[in-house]
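Format notes (please read before filing issues)

Several people have asked whether sequences and structure tokens are stored in separate files. They are not. Every record keeps both together, in the order shown below: the sequence lines, then the token lines. Line labels are part of the format and must not be stripped during preprocessing.
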Amino acid sequence: MTDSWVNSAEILGSDLPLELSGTGNRRALLMDALREAVRSGRLAPGTRLPPYRSLAADLGLARNTVADAYAELVAEGWLAARQGSGTRVAERAAPVTPVHRPRTPERVARPVHDLVQGQPDPSVFPRTAWLASARRALAAAPDDAFGPGDPHGRPELRRALAGYLARVRGVRASPERIVLCSGAAHGLRLLAEVVGGPWAAEAYGLPFHRELLASHGVGTRPLGVDADGARVDGLTRRDRAVLLTPAHQFPTGGPLHPARRAAVVDWARATGGLVVEDDYDGEFRYDRQPVGAVQGLDPEHVVLVGSVSKSLSPALRIGWMVLPQRLVAPVVAAKGEREQFSSATEQLTLADFIESGAYDRQVRRMRQRHRRRRDQLVDALHARAPHVRVTGIAAGLHAVVELPPGTERSAVRAAAWQGLAVEGLGDYLHPGAEHASRGPRASRAHRAGAAGGAGNADAVRAAGGADAVRAAGPADASLVPHRDGLVVGYATPAESAYPEALDALCRSLPPAGPPSATAAPAPPPPSAAP
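Then the structure lines:
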């Protein structure tokens, strides 16, 4: 109905009228009026709203119109409804949203709970063990450690890393091939300067990395991602490099399939391209055997990039690149004549921390802690939202909560009004990735060939013949089926805050049901309201 009208009703006998005016759908106008009343403070947190029947009678609306408006505002976090206590204004003074990506101007409040992926709980930094290593390192430090720094990095740390990465990640490298940097982002900047572009990158990944490369004149194009990792069959001779997260695809989860690992190395050998392996949270695995680094397959065509940001703290600003021999001198030259980025004393401390075994103990402790956090997340969702699917849980510091189509943005908004910072899966999608298939034959070919990676022509032919083979060529590897979901980081909250964060997450999720019913969780039956 699209007539123009004005009406008002008293809210529980108060002097606050609810004004509805304008042209359009009456449910939408009612929702706008209620939002504005809450936003302006005329409806304070905790204010009890009238039963939907009463408000419908006062406004001359259908009962279902008011009930649906209440339900949708509950889903968005403006209202709260509990069995037996009616519908009230939610106990939030202002909306809050994820804090680290400035994409929306209305970000005005700090979140109460933080489930944004990206960093460990800073309270668990091993201060006592780190201090012991710092004392030993400083006592044993040579005099040149306090002079101008070598851009290669301290030799003590490069030796310690060479041994650790060989033992834990299957990396093949001498200390001379390791160049220290201030983190993975710094490493990517140096490689962009030395290697040039264009690069291929996984269709789902950190926007910050893509933006960083673009700021250095290196464009990226997307490679499709499926259950077996990146679709490396989409690489071409034009690509100078490919950026991958093989140990645990970020953020969708899962390791790169062995056949695709071999295929991407074959591509690099045949074309002279470079595989840039971001070893993102590769040390944190829970339900699977260790997955070695791709670098171990061919050290001359793969760069391993890593850091201590997830295992210790991003505040340390220590990372590393394990480089092919031909890139060591150019990367060091790009850094400059002196070390400008990482403190020599912290490098020495980390070297002792690794050599003494304290780093291994810290990783084991964090692995146990994160596994317990992950299990709490899975159990909470199983109990309170059994209709959602949780993926990417075998490793890493986050999981993906898959949502019904079309509900991702409303779930993020609902979470914000619960005081919860969490991100949608769509925030990580490469802007050049395709969301829609190219017709049924191409879709069938894409699904048949996705699992096989390179060399999947037989499977593609079975799905659709010669036309499908052509449709599933390299360009098809950029196809990304639309997925709605939340990327839930479970490492950041303190122990005491984590249960409440999970509770806020569960309250934010859409209910089970067909797509038309998933836009908003419904409140308790209106008949329960007084």
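For reference, the curators noted about this record: The domain at 127-357 is CATH 3.40.640.10 (Aspartate Aminotransferase; domain 2). The first strand starts at residue 4 and ends at 7.
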